[in-house]
Design brief:
The protein has helices at residues 64-80, 124-134, 171-180, 224-233, 242-246, 266-274; strands at residues 18-19, 37-40, 84-87, 104-107, 110-113, 140-141, 153-155, 160-164, 184-188, 201-205, 214-217, 238-239, 253-254, 258-262, 278-282, 299-300. It is an alpha/beta fold. The protein starts with 17 loop residues before the first strand and ends with a strand. It comes from Actinoalloteichus hymeniacidonis.
Length: 303
């Protein structure tokens, strides 16, 4: 069965973490999964009570119990793939705390915390800072510039891609370079639907001194100059379609072989499978009502 064979299958027909058999090309580059450590927050208080991005509509009903089930399926998918999942307690009154990626960037054990643009989310940063301190992270810096962490910071294994345009200030990019000690490349987002970098681009496999990273992205989310940068840096990138971007298919998580992505992103799944990766579908329909998907729910604890 190819990915195309699952077109039209809903959550009841393909459960959280389901994989899809794909007809691969005769020769594909071998892919190696590496164990990851993630931080997640259960959506116990998840709702849409305000609107800070085009996805959010407080008049649309939210099923918190279903959001919890979807989140738990995502967590169990990671664990089934051999990854470690740490969990931070959810706090009442912070419905978007489930989107853990927005509250910290960790590279080689160094932590740059978050400073949210929207006042509704500001208190989340301190709860995550306390978690880092309680759990043995000694090099924790809270930013002076607005910085929504892995929402706009994407580590490629050799450099940090840094988004701006809607949430994170350009000044946060130099702050990230100084704090984390890694080179930073700035990218400007221009479509408000893709308000964070992590809904417009993700890393399929990290690079090293001898191997180039592989990314997937949606070109129309970026300014012309940033798009030229992406084409120069990643000439072999997977290019997402409008459909796959619009279902937040690029808000995906890869361990170098396994790619966890929304169930609707069938075309993107087929593309990554043709590159030798293994897609794993999850349903994030309730969480998407707040503009979030698998990656939004997942902060990677590196080092």
């Amino acid at each position: 069965m190819t990915v195309a064979d699952v077109q039209g299958i809903g959550p009841s027909g393909l459960g959280g973490g389901a994989t899809v058999a794909v007809d691969h090309p005769a020769v594909v580059e071998p892919r190696l999964a590496t164990p990851r450590r993630y931080l997640m927050c259960p959506p116990e208080h998840f709702t849409v009570s305000y609107a800070i991005n085009p996805w959010m509509n407080p008049e649309v009903a939210v099923d918190t119990a279903e959001a919890i089930r979807q989140w738990d399926a995502l967590r169990r998918t990671y664990e089934r793939l051999g990854h470690t999942v740490e969990v931070i307690d959810a706090e009442p009154g912070l419905p978007d705390m489930v989107f853990a990626a927005n509250s910290g960037t960790v590279v080689d054990g160094r932590v740059l915390g978050a400073r949210f643009r929207a006042p509704e989310r500001a208190a989340e940063a301190e709860h995550y800072r306390r978690w880092f301190v309680r759990n043995g992270f000694r090099d924790v810096v809270m930013p002076s510039c607005t910085n929504e962490a892995e929402g706009d910071f994407t580590w490629t294994g050799s450099l940090l891609l840094a988004g701006t345009g809607f949430r994170t200030d350009p000044g946060a990019h130099s702050e990230a370079q100084e704090t984390l000690g890694v080179p930073v490349v700035s990218l400007r987002l221009i479509d408000p639907r893709y308000y964070h970098l992590d809904v417009a681009l993700f890393v399929l496999s990290e690079g090293s001194a001898t191997v180039a990273p592989l990314v997937a992205y949606y070109p129309e989310a970026f300014s012309p100059g940033s798009l030229r940068v992406l084409r120069r840096l990643f000439p072999d990138a997977v290019i997402a379609t409008e459909h796959d971007a619009a279902c937040l298919g690029l808000n995906a998580v890869s361990d170098g072989r396994n790619v966890v992505l929304p169930i609707e992103a069938v075309g993107l799944a087929e593309q990554v499978a043709q590159r030798g990766f293994e897609p794993h579908f999850v349903d994030i329909g309730e969480l998407r009502k707040s503009g979030g998907g698998p990656k939004c729910c997942t902060m990677e604890l590196r080092g």
